Amino acid sequence: LAKTTQPISMDSYEGQEVNITCSHNNIATNDYITWYQQFPSQGPRFIIQGYKTKVTNEVASLFIPADRKSSTLSLPRVSLSDTAVYYCLVGDSNSGYALNFGKGTSLLVTP
Amino acid sequence: EAGVAQSPRYKIIEKRQSVAFWCNPISGHATLYWYQQILGQGPKLLIQFQNNGVVDDSQLPKDRFSAERLKGVDSTLKIQPAKLEDSAVYLCASSLEANNQPQHFGDGTRLSIL
User: Fold this and answer.
1) What Å distances lie between residue A17 and A44, A76, B47, CA to CA?
2) I want to staple B37 with a disulfide (CB 3.0 to 4.6 A). Which of A108, B43, B66, B100 is the partner?
3) For B12-33, how does the pLDDT look when each residue is reduced to its tens digit (9 = 90+)?
4) Residue B44, min C-alpha distance to chain A (Å)
């Protein structure tokens, strides 16, 4: 399984763009990169998934460079409600990507 | 669509007692997962089912934990006997298939062992 490394915590002010980078140096050819968000007392919630280049949806963008050894989750104009833990996962169904949640990045957004 | 349902939301037991958790996945989802999340850590997969067959239970402490998924729908996770270190949130998730599909999580059962 590809091991991931994320910052333990990040702080931001409301309205700013937040970029959380995840390192996954030994990502395999078939691996996808998936990000989840978790609020206290709730289960994780899927945010975005990508394989290469850039993926965008209504809540976030995911940037993946050509070598795929890292990825960046970008949250535009964060609000207080974006305070949560963000997890980066790497893998595919054959390697068991479900296993590797890690400790995630705790994002605190303040006024 | 209705989300993943779990019960109970909270459970307090004494060590060496037994406990069971129930999960009802999203309708039509073939894959079901049970995770253990200890305070301050990310979820750790305990067992993964594809329909009613076990795909991966390599991290399930089989001397005390057991899980089943009858008829490929609902699932139960049991701990017997419980230890203090089992205090955690137990999360159930489901996905359409295992191939790179996003997982949909329930809100978990918070277990406290006294």
Assistant:
1) 22, 4, 37
2) B43
3) 999 999 999 999 999 999 999 9
4) 6
